[in-house]
Amino acid sequence: MDVHPPHQPIHTWKDFLLHLLTITIGLFIALSLEAAVESAHHRHLVRDAHENLRREIEVNHKLFTKNAADIQLNRAQLAHDINQLRELRNGKKLDNPDLRWAWSWDSYGDAAWKTARESGAVAYMDSRWISTYSWVYTQQEYVNSTAVAIINDETRASAPLKVAEDPSKLSPAEIETLLVKSAEMDLSFETLQTMMTALDDMYADALKRL
Questions:
Q1: Count of CB atoms situated within 10 Å of the CB of 37
Q2: Which site among 7, 85, 110, 155 is 20 to 30 Å from 146 CA-CA?
């Protein structure tokens, strides 16, 4: 923003005040226009962020059904594993042993939330929306990290079986360890399901308001 000196010399107080008034009005108009442009930019930024977040939350909301079904299948497999391990512990020989520790998980996305924060859009949102999004994505991060931790536990739990190759060759100590690990994972899944249900309720509430 440039302020230029008068083109003609100022001879009287009237000329000085007129020139000062002209500068003041010019600055006021320029600042008002700049503020209007900035305000419009911020509104567009927030509007786009809300739209992107709505789409992301919709996708995550739909993902709940798939992840919940996969957890149920895995808990059923864990129950099967525990029954077979108990039979092995009791000395029973299994004709067709089927011990598996693996499951499918699709992490909930957070790209729109990260973009909204990095672009500065969150700073111009209503405080109630900031609170809503923060709660949703904090819970979501906790759910994702818990699921990944269970996946890692399952991967490590199956190590003795990979070494033995045949379940009947597992030692009593290995069988006991696998039993305890399987029970712990099942409890972890139960906790994860509770957290997922709470998260999905948050998704549904946010989508009603968006």
A1: 10
A2: 85
Reading the chain (210 residues) residue by residue, the pLDDT tens digits are: 454 554 555 556 665 566 566 666 666 665 655 555 565 556 888 899 999 999 999 999 999 999 999 999 989 988 988 998 999 899 888 777 778 777 789 999 999 999 999 988 888 888 999 999 999 999 999 999 999 999 888 878 777 777 777 788 888 998 898 899 889 999 999 999 999 999 999 999 999 987
Backbone angles phi, psi at 140, to 5 degrees: -65, -45
Q: Does the CA dihedral 44-48-54-60 come out positive or negative?
A: negative
